Amino acid sequence: MSRPLTFGIEIEFALAAIPKGKENPCPELEDEIRGRITNFELNEWDDRFGLMRRSVESHVAATIRAAGFPCDPYSPDMGDATKWEVTTDPTIKVPTNGLRWFGIEIRSPAYYFCSESLYAVAEVLDLLKSTYCIHIDGNSCGLHVHVGNENRNFTFQHVRNLHAFLFAFDSQISSLHPPYRQNRYWLKSPRALFHWGLGGQRPPTTKEGILRYLQATDFRQLKQLGAPHIGTSAVNFFHVFEGMGEGRDTKRTVEFRQHEASLKGATVINWIKTVVGIVEYTRTIHPDAFIELLAMSVESEDVKDEGKPILAEEGFTIVDLLRAIGQLGPARFYKDRGIFRNRPVYSVDQPYELKWDTTPGYDCIYR
Description:
Elements: E1 6-19, H1 30-33, E2 39-40, H2 44-48, H3 51-66, E3 71-72, E4 84-88, E5 100-107, E6 111-112, H4 115-131, E7 134-135, E8 143-148, H5 156-168, H6 170-174, H7 190-194, H8 206-214, H9 219-226, E9 235-236, H10 238-242, E10 253-256, H11 265-284, H12 287-298, H13 318-324, H14 328-337, E11 339-340, E12 343-346, E13 354-357, E14 365-366
Parallel strand pairs: 1-2, 3-4
Antiparallel strand pairs: 1-5, 1-6, 1-7, 1-8, 4-5, 8-10, 9-10, 11-14, 12-13
């Protein structure tokens, strides 16, 4: 039996704080936020030097440590895979209600994929929700999951299988995410990036894309199919390709970063199960069974004439796909939650750029 895969998460959110001695600028929210706001031993001058921000980082780290999890605030040498880490992110959009808001990013250790690790993640999420006043902006806050093979790189055959899978079932996977997490600069669809591999002339058919990936013979060819923008993909293989050489100091992980941020345990855990399940399936599946599954995506092209359903919406949805790869728990979760109808359309002016039709009827969750 193969050893279990490893995973780590990164979650972004905004946290409210009031410096000590300052009155609550939002008295109408007194009952909701008082007790969830840290009173910092700092004054306004400290904020000019970033000390208030560092104090927020330290307080969050101390809260996580007090619950029994090793955790450090920001430091120049962040990257200890054995600890939770806390830093701030100025790109996170924050409310403008008078409170002092700080963009926070939490990074988990590299965990082996098992129930105990998932419980640990859920416990930290619950701790954050119960301790702080938190706001999540869906556009600027994401949930990133890194999936790794311990400290080893993935095999070429495994990475090739994973590329073919993600290309074939891009629409199914994307249906788990709202339109504002679709095909943005750092969330490029595998289909959109693949257009570069065809010279930007036209979007490939599902069959063409699958065959191009399965016919690749080395890492270099796989990388070229998404070049030059592999680092902007919703599924980022940058660290895998960087780790091809022996002795390379890199994470060697596949980073899934399309999911919107959330501190809901069930939401985060089921997404972790989903992406780890996809990576595990493509590692262990027999070639004949794999080809049979990929053939499901070729039976109906993703882009149809107006009024005709696409396979990801009717016939073989993400729920069906998860059942097919043995992920019954996430399949039940997403069936109950519902999925998004994100129909892919191609830009006439730039045919290699995949966009999303968000006209009424195609940007809502349905069951």
